[in-house]
Amino acid sequence: MYIVTSTVVVPLEKVDEVIAIYRNRSRRVDSAEGFHSFRLIQNTKKPNELTVHLEWQTKAAYLTWVKSAEFKEIHDMEKNYPDQELAGIVPKVRQYEVVAE
Fold first, then answer.
1. Which residues, other chains included, contact 11 with Cβ-Cβ below 8 Å and sequence gap of 6+?
2. Which of 3, 14, 40, 67 could make an S-S bridge to 22, C-beta 3.0–4.6 Å?
3. Which residues make Cβ contacts (< 8 Å) with residue 78, sequence separation at least 6?
């Protein structure tokens, strides 16, 4: 299994707005080959730190998704988000290979 996380720190007053965006996400990734699960998780000590947690069957499946037109479309929409403060936030992306269960 391959796990990808994308963490952002947003202004406290915008946390609920960002959570709502993810609750209403397009779900296009859900049908990608090798996709396993999506979660938005919130740091309990820093509530304005939100992490997207994606699980994939393999690294190759994830990389195929990243190179897809759908991935590009989704991320282009994020760049054009009307709230420029949110649009300008750069996530910290980390990738992990599951080595034991």
1. 48, 85
2. 40
3. 87
pLDDT tens-digit profile of 37-80? Answer: 999 999 999 999 999 999 999 999 999 999 999 998 887 776 66
* Angle CA 50–54–74, to nearest 5: 80
Residues 55, 70: Cα–Cα separation, whole Å: 18
User: CA-based diameter of the chain, in Å?
Assistant: 42
- Cβ contacts of 93 within 8 Å, gap of 6 or more: 4, 5, 6, 7
pLDDT of residue 16: 95
Q: Which pTM does this prediction carry?
A: 0.89
Q: How buried is 56 (Cβ within 10 angstroms: 0-12 exposed, 13-18 middle, 19+ buried)? A: buried
